[in-house]
Design goal:
Blueprint (H helix, E strand, L loop, with lengths): L1 H19 L12 H31 L15 H29 L7 E8 L2 E6 L33 E3 L3 E5 L4 E7 L4 E5 L4 E5 L5 E5 L5 E7 L11 E7 L1 H9 L4 H7 L7 H12 L25 E3 L5 E3 L2 H9 L24 H14 L3
Parallel strand pairs: 1-5, 4-10
Antiparallel strand pairs: 1-2, 2-3, 5-8, 6-7, 6-9, 9-10, 11-12
Helix pairs in contact: 1-2, 2-3, 6-8
Bound molecules: copper (II) ion.
């Protein structure tokens, strides 16, 4: 009896929790109401089966409880029971899968009026690219990816000249405009996910994936990476701002084209050692977490770092000099910068970043990161 009551409490409790819990869908901000419907159908089918099985189990534990002298009846087959269980299960599974197929068919077939933009994912941030006035995204080559060419644009493709490059994890989109989203990854598997849009898609190194959607509600929505993609996966966040057409146009006009970005790079002249340090910073992955332009990704920016004072988590101050940088790389948890969690920065031994590399890195910081 106690077991039967316990089972019933689980069933009733689960149903009550489902309807009264505060953790329900956020308000939808795209055209994908169909995806919500699919999820709700799955909830209803699974919920009904869960309640039926739970109540049946409670009933059986009570009805067939131990009684003195009672004997179990062995019944290996029951064709009628199996037949209608098969029919009901089939109906349930079809009800869950068929709507998904219909929505999926729509999800990967963008309407003719859809414009394109590209999401470039990399450990652990996002970047965006829009076709320029010609409406065509220029071709890219992974071999071209570098600090000065963050999207790997090809020099020999004129279609890329006017591409608008958003070298930041914040992007704006105009309301009501359908977009075909093209996804690329620079390193490992990531997944572009904006919960309010009810839309997500893997970005896979070596191929371009896509889906489409129309933003339908003005606001600011967080982008999260929905694929465990390395140690700082949880910090891989960005923002989509859905704007009025005028606000979007104003923002868009301020973003550089590839031609502007390339020509605007003040070709800073580094000493040979600093130039090598710049390459070390890039190839050792430091720039996945540190930026040179003041934006904060996973770690503190390197802009203005060298020679300044840094506040540590315990409130004390430290001069950023050679010894501090060496310690930060070899024993990152010895001094932790205020506002950052210990253990986030990888410990680099001499087998990964040699003493010579470190010396070059410091030369680079000295030349590039001085205030
Ligand atoms: Cu990721």
């Amino acid at each position: 009896m106690a077991v039967a009551i316990f089972l019933l409490i689980i069933v009733v409790g689960s149903v009550v929790f489902t309807f009264w819990s505060p953790w329900w869908f956020s308000e939808i901000a795209s055209n994908w109401g169909g995806i919500d419907t699919t999820v709700l159908i799955t909830f209803w089918v699974c919920g009904a089966v869960f309640v039926a099985i739970g109540v049946f189990m409670a009933y059986c534990t009570w009805k067939y409880r131990h009684r003195e002298g009672a004997r179990a009846d062995y019944q290996p087959e029951n064709a009628r029971l199996e037949w209608w269980l098969t029919v009901i299960t089939t109906i349930g599974v079809v009800a869950m899968l068929a709507p998904g197929l219909i929505v999926w068919d729509d999800y990967v077939n963008p309407p003719d009026e859809a414009l394109e933009f590209e999401v470039l994912s990399q450990q652990w941030t996002w970047k965006f690219r829009f076709p320029g006035a010609d409406g065509v995204l220029g071709t890219v080559d992974v071999a071209n990816l570098s600090l000065d060419n963050p999207f790997g644009m090809r020099e020999d493709d004129p279609a890329g000249e006017d591409d608008v490059l958003v070298n930041s994890a914040e992007v704006h989109l105009p309301i009501g405009q359908p977009f075909k989203v093209l996804l690329r990854s620079r390193d490992v598997l990531h997944d572009f996910f904006v919960p309010e849009f009810r839309a997500k898609m893997d970005s896979v190194p070596g191929m371009v994936t896509y889906f489409w959607f129309t933003p339908t509600k003005i606001g600011q929505y967080q982008i999260i990476c929905a694929e465990l993609c390395g140690m700082s996966h949880h910090t891989m966040r960005g923002w989509v701002h859905v704007d009025t057409e005028e606000d979007f146009a104003a923002w868009f006009a301020n973003q550089p084209t590839w031609a502007e970005m390339r020509d605007g790079v003040t070709r800073k002249v580094y000493t040979a050692l600093a130039q090598r340090g710049r390459q070390v910073a890039e190839s050792s992955g430091c720039l996945a977490c540190h930026t040179l332009d003041g934006t904060k990704v996973v770690g503190p920016t390197w802009q203005g770092l060298w020679g300044g004072e840094q506040t540590l988590a315990d409130g004390s101050k430290v001069m950023v000099d050679e010894a501090y940088v060496i310690e930060s790389v070899r024993e990152p948890n010895a001094k932790v910068v205020e506002g950052f969690a210990p253990g986030t920065m990888i410990t680099y031994g001499a087998d990964v970043v040699s003493d010579d590399d470190l010396e070059a890195l410091i030369a680079f910081l000295r030349e590039d990161a001085a205030p």
